[in-house]
């Protein structure tokens, strides 16, 4: 019976409450702020997935896909058109993080392999998008590294994948540590439903 309830919850999540809406809005703001910082400073990490990871851990894979969808639309139509193209990567991250966090607790030492597990699917999608659609050139700080590897003789897709896996892993690792720290200081009453 318990297994059936778990499967039903994953397929049909509970109705969205005002509390969940507020936390999702906060998560989108985290993504926007982190994304702006990385974009303005041309950092080799993106910092735009903290909110996605937070929601996926708290509410599961279905809700985990909402922040990157809304973030991609906001950023894509305002300051960074690339966000629209990479929106599927964020949606995939929310889905995978929600699934992984249901199976494994992403706390303490488990953050290190957990970051790797949630990185791989999105990195594959992101590398294909970057190589095929943009020729390895985007608005992130990793573009320079891709071009250096490509000029050194590596083909473009391999150059993008190598740089992307390193940048994505570091980004997810930082994001998981920050989310874990945030969850450690926030009272559970703020994000647990009482229904």
Notes on the structure:
By secondary structure, this protein is mostly helical. It has one domain (17-190): Arp2/3 complex 21 kDa subunit ARPC3. The protein is built from nine helices and no strands. It has helices at residues 2-11, 18-41, 50-59, 61-64, 66-78, 82-103, 111-134, 143-151, 156-185. The longest helix has 30 residues, at 156-185. The mean pLDDT is 86.
Number of alpha- plus pi-helical segments: 9
Q: In this structure, how is the largest beta sheet organized?
A: none
Helical amount among residues, as a percent range?
over 70%
Radius of gyration: 17 Å
* Tally of individual domains: 1
The N- and C-terminal alpha carbons lie at a distance of 20 Å
Give me the CATH fold name. Answer: Arp2/3 complex 21 kDa subunit ARPC3
Overall outline: globular
Specify the CATH architecture: Orthogonal Bundle
Structural class: mainly alpha
* Quaternary: single chain
Mean pLDDT: 86
| Strands, count | 0
Which ranges are low-confidence, i.e. pLDDT below 50, for 5 or more consecutive residues?
A: none
Strand content: under 5%
Per CATH, the class reads Mainly Alpha
């Amino acid at each position: 019976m318990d297994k059936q309830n778990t499967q039903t919850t994953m397929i049909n999540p509970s109705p969205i409450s005002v509390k969940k809406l507020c936390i999702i809005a906060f998560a989108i703001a985290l993504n926007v702020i982190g994304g702006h910082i990385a974009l303005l400073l041309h950092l080799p990490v993106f910092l735009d997935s903290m909110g996605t990871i937070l929601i996926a851990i708290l509410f599961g894979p279905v809700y985990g896909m909402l922040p990157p969808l809304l973030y991609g639309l906001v950023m894509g139509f305002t300051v960074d058109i690339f966000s629209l193209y990479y929106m599927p990567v964020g949606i995939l991250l929310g889905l995978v993080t929600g699934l992984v966090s249901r199976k494994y607790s992403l706390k303490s030492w488990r953050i290190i392999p957990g970051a790797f597990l949630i990185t791989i699917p999105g990195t594959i999608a992101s590398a294909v998008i970057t190589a095929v659609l943009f020729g390895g050139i985007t608005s992130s700080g990793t573009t320079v590294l891709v071009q250096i590897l490509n000029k050194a003789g590596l083909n473009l897709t391999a150059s993008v994948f190598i740089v992307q896996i390193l940048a994505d892993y570091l980004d997810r690792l930082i994001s998981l540590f920050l989310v874990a720290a945030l969850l450690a200081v926030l009272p559970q009453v703020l994000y647990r439903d009482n229904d």
